[in-house]
Structure formats: C-alpha cells, structure tokens
C-alpha cells in the first residue's frame, strides 16, 4: 500500500469513527463499541488513531462539540435537552465542556448566534428595500 492510499484509508477510518460516534449519541460510545462496529480490534483502532495523531476521546469531544454548535444554532432545545442529546449526564458537565471548546457558555453562544442571525436578516431586508427604492439588480 503506497502512502497516498494509506492516508486515504486513514482519513476514511476517521470519517467512519466520527460517523459511528454521532450515530450512537446520546449513548456514550466507547472505543470498544466503535472497534466492534468497524470489525477491528480495540488495539488496531487505537493504533490507527495514533497514526493519525488523535485519540478516541478527542474524536468524541469533536463530535459532541460539532453537534452542540448545531443544536444551539438550529434548534430551540433547552440546554438540558442538548446536554442529554450529547450524552452528558449533567447539564453542568455540558456547560463546562462547551466553555472549554468555545471559550464561552452555551447560553452566551446561543445569544450571540441569534443576534448575528437577526442582524443578517435585518441587513437582507435593508438591502431588499434598497433594491426596491433604487432599482438595484
């Protein structure tokens, strides 16, 4: 196997691990569960992740982080519901993790995200009004 196909196969493995983690949430997926689902041994999965300079817990955190961003930006779920969807037993654990990921609390992130959406909608409406007033196309 040449280095390009090895890199491609490793990238594919990372995609599969992330996909499996996302599918398992809100259950707390383990390395054992993912290795079994991918039909490889735990040690082989650990070794392959190490070759990609990552760890299973880092991939789990990444998947949770991405899902949290999605839920906060695109849903009306409460923080407690989001924490559950991400596999956290306590809302406080989710808030602590989110603050590490983003540097702010999930509530503050949601407020800023909503303010940005409102500002964007305001600008689009203003631009549309300019088009009508001045015939801009």
Q: Mind explaining what this structure looks like?
A:
With about 140 residues, the chain is mainly alpha-helical. It has a single domain, classed as Arc Repressor Mutant, subunit A (Orthogonal Bundle), CATH 1.10.10. It has helices at about 5-25, 30-35, 40-50, 55-75, 80-85, 90-100, 105-135. α1 crosses α4 (about 55-75), α2 (about 30-35) packs across α3 (about 40-50) and α5 packs across α6 (about 90-100). It is elongated, with a radius of gyration of 20 Å.
Question: Which CATH first-tier class would you pick?
Answer: Mainly Alpha
Q: Give a quick account of the main beta sheet: strands, pairing sense, barrel closure.
A: none
Please trace the helix and strand order, writing H or E for each element: HHHHHHH
Strand composition percent: under 5%
What is the CATH superfamily?
Homeodomain-like
Distance between the termini: 55 Å
Whole-number mean pLDDT: 86
- Cα-based radius of gyration, to the nearest Å: 20 Å
> What's the architecture in CATH terms?
Orthogonal Bundle
Q: What share of the residues lie within helices?
A: over 70%
Give keywords.
137 residues; mainly alpha; Arc Repressor Mutant, subunit A; 0% strand
Strand and helix layout:
Layout: H1 3-24, H2 31-37, H3 42-51, H4 56-74, H5 79-85, H6 91-102, H7 106-134
Helix pairs in contact: 1-4, 2-3, 5-6
Protein name: AraC family transcriptional regulator
Keywords: DNA-binding, Transcription, Transcription regulation
Domain HTH araC/xylS-type: 15-112
